[in-house]
Amino acid sequence: MTDSSSSASPSGKVGRSEQSASGVPYGGTATTDEVVAKVKEVSSHIYDFAGVPGKASEPGPGVKECQGKDTDTYFHVYHPWNFKPDARADNDIAMANLKAKLSTGGWVIKDSYRDNSSNKNLNLIADNDSGRVSVWIVAYSSRTVPSLGIQVTSGCYEVPKGDTVDHF
């Protein structure tokens, strides 16, 4: 999803008209509730992919406008959450497991890098183009309580005719 060429029309041809101004691919037509459920399901899979015992934070998904599109008709869903492994050493194991799992099943790792912070946190960005979803994971391994910061983001969806976006 980070690659603007990932948006394809039903004819298979890529078109800028099917993307928001930010390059987020067009996801199709769906209600806000349907996309929220989908993003929650992806977050649940990401939790499972970590492969170590731990706790996830509680905040739920939110809805944002698609840049350059009508705010009553187009939207995308984002779900930021935090994963804290039960054991300190498991933070790096969870990140290694995620890197391995996010290279399979339609997932493609788009970027893996150390950020510019003093801790040089490992960042991982992966897309699942067929699912029109992306995940960005940051390993905060040097913190007093190590954790993973995770954000799952959907593509840009259009609500069905007659509906409006449920902003929350």
SSE blueprint and pairings:
Elements lengths: L25 E4 L2 H19 L3 E3 L5 E3 L9 E12 L4 H12 L6 E7 L7 E7 L4 E8 L6 E8 L1 E3 L10
Parallel strand pairs: 1-9
Antiparallel strand pairs: 2-4, 3-4, 4-8, 4-9, 5-6, 6-7, 7-8
Main attributes of the structure:
nine-stranded mixed β-sheet; elongated; 2 helices; disordered N terminus; alpha+beta; about 170 residues
Following the backbone from N to C, one meets helices and strands in this order, namely EHEEEHEEEEE
Alpha plus pi helix count: 2
- Helical proportion? 10-25%
User: Which secondary-structure class do the elements indicate?
Assistant: alpha+beta
Strands, total number: 9
Chain oligomer state: single chain
Number of structurally distinct domains: 1
Q: What gap, in angstroms, lies between the N and C termini?
A: 23 Å
Mean pLDDT: 87
* pLDDT < 50 runs, ≥5 residues: 1-22
Q: Which outline best applies?
A: elongated
Largest sheet composition: 9 strands, mixed
